[in-house]
Amino acid sequence: MKIIVAGGDGFCGWPTALYLSKQGHDVAIIDSIIRRKWDDELRSNSLTPIASLEARVDKWDEISGNRIKTYIGDINHYDFLQEVVRQEQPEAFVHFAEQRSAPYSMIDREHAVFTQVNNVVGTLNVLYVIKELVPDCHLIKLGTMGEYGTPNIDIEEGYIEIEHNGRKDLLPYPKQPGSMYHLSKVHDSHNIMFTCKAWGIRATDLNQGIVYGLHTDETQLDEMLINRLDYDSVFGTALNRFIIQAAIGHDLTVYGKGGQTRGFLNIKDTVRCIEIAVENPADKGEFRVFNQFTEEFSVLELAKMVKNVANKKGLSTNVSHIDNPRVELENHYYNAMHTKLRNLGLEAQLLTDEVIGSILDVALKYKDHVIVNNVLPTVTWK
Ligand code: NAD
Ligand code: USQ
Predict the structure, then answer these.
(1) Nearest atom within ligand 2 for CA of residue 239
(2) Is the distance from CB of 99 to CB of 39 less than 8 angstroms?
């Protein structure tokens, strides 16, 4: 199939582009490379040394014989997006191209406005370009489990049947997002749902949990193909951050009590979930929602697992509870459904000590790249 991967230079997008290309799909990446500029703004970096997009794509061509086309530009620029879609005529549009850090979106007014404009306008442009140029193209949009928040009832996959005053309806599941970033995803979901109904767009919203790891079979083929790995307090995410903290001998930074429970998945499962969505398109006019994670953990559970693995490798690692910079529940009920991708064939790669150990080995290899000042959180929600 002809597939566009928007955000294909990023943490999820790069391994996905390689994986889809390996399966024989005709892949084109769109990326504005802005994620690398946010590193400059924050004086931060990827733990791993990432090659330029051109160098990565050339190396992949050399190794696999498959050419991934690249379009450097911003999907907020409609003329640019139109031109790419006109040339590519995609059958599937995989949309990762957003500002995805909750702390970044909470820095100040400018960062909140930027995040929401970048994400909401970008997605609107994608919807309009599909309507205008490729109305049968399947939009596969990365949403987030954080759209639901932490309600005191089970979380369903997108919709919940409600009975009210004797009548029943299947309604969108209530959303209680916890940051300006997570709010942008909710706004996207509403816009997508409306255009599915109004214009007959076919769309899958993948409410992804927190992704850990970095390697896939493809990114491991050559150091030039290595994926980015974020550890700083703005873009680094819970499990990956703890593993890198263990590698540099930093206390593991559990925010507050650490009872915050979330859905997690390995990056190897992210790429497979995208393939499953591509191979099983939504119907015309259907707004389909899948919860994309494989296991639930509390933050404290993860920190303890990392500590055990690190201790077995002879590293002395402590778990510390630091003041929570976010406004969120630290003890709450959490039980989210995630059967739809499994029913379509996802075989989850579960988190084990061996998996943590293998990510820790990568972190130990590159630990000298860590800028230690970037590890403790500086952005607060209040
Ligand atoms: P990332 O920041 O590593 O990658 C995003 C890429 O999109 C970057 O390369 C960036 O340059 C590009 N981009 C951003 N705005 C753009 C624009 N307007 N035009 C063109 N390119 C643009 O993020 P990621 O971790 O790969 O996340 C990808 C998607 O998956 C995001 O939508 C994110 O919300 C979602 N997601 C990520 C996680 C996670 O744990 N990483 C979890 C759930 C959902
Ligand atoms: N946390 C800590 N210590 C840390 C970092 C985080 O205790 O050092 C806690 C946070 O307080 C929070 C939880 O861990 O309770 C998750 O935080 P995170 O930074 O790992 O993840 P989050 O901000 O939710 O965002 C990440 C991605 C985002 C994606 C989301 C999926 O950056 O793009 O949408 O995970 S989800 O959480 O399911 O919404």
Answers:
(1) 20
(2) no
CA of 237 to the centre of ligand 2 (A): 5
CA dihedral 110, 113, 119, 120 (to 10 degrees): -170
The reply to whether 185 belongs to the active site is yes
- 47-88: per-residue pLDDT in tens? 999 999 999 999 999 999 999 999 999 999 999 999 999 999
Tell me which of 3.40.50.300, 3.40.50.150, 3.40.50.11440, 3.40.50.720 is the CATH number of domain 2-373. 3.40.50.720
Ligand nearest to the CA of 122: 1
Selecting among 181, 231, 255, 334, the annotated active-site residue is 181
Mutate to test the pocket of ligand 1, among 78, 100, 129, 229 (most ligand atoms within 8 A of CB): 100
Whole-model pTM over 0.85: yes
Ligand 1 contacts CB of residue 94 (under 6 A): no
Spatial separation of the C-alpha atoms in residues 43 and 303, rounded to whole Å: 26
> In the structure encoding, which two tokens stand for residue 115, read together?
């995040």
What span, in angstroms and rounded, lies between the C-alpha atoms of 362 and 313?
13
C-beta of 210 in contact with ligand 2 (< 6 A): yes
Catalytic one of 48, 70, 123, 144: 144
Q: Is residue 259 very low, low, confident or very high in pLDDT (cuts 50, 70, 90)?
A: very high
Query: In 3D, which of 233, 211, 218, 227 has the Cα closest to residue 322?
Result: 233
Those residues with Cβ within 8 angstroms of residue 368's Cβ, 6 or more apart along the chain or in another chain: none
Model confidence at 371, in pLDDT bands (50, 70, 90)?
A: very high
| Cα distance between residue 342 and residue 210, in whole Å | 17
pLDDT value, residue 225: 98
Pocket flag, ligand 1, residue 98 (CB < 6 Å): yes
Beta carbon of 255 within 6 Å of any ligand 2 atom: yes
Q: What is the dihedral of CA 223, 275, 190, 134, to 10 degrees?
A: 100
